[in-house]
Design goal:
Elements (H helix, E strand, L loop, with lengths): L6 H17 L1 H20 L15
Amino acid sequence: MRVLWTLSAEQDRADIVDFIAQDNPLAAIRMDEIFSAAVGRLAEHPLLGRPDRSRAPAS
């Protein structure tokens, strides 16, 4: 499965990493690695994630 990031999700990730980096650059790098690992697991096991909440519920 391929995981697609929305623009707002990409920006949120960058904002989080930048915020952490202000106090602890190494922790920011680690957090980015944690994000990447989580996305990798989600791509391999899509049922681990929450359902897409951006779509309207089926009628």
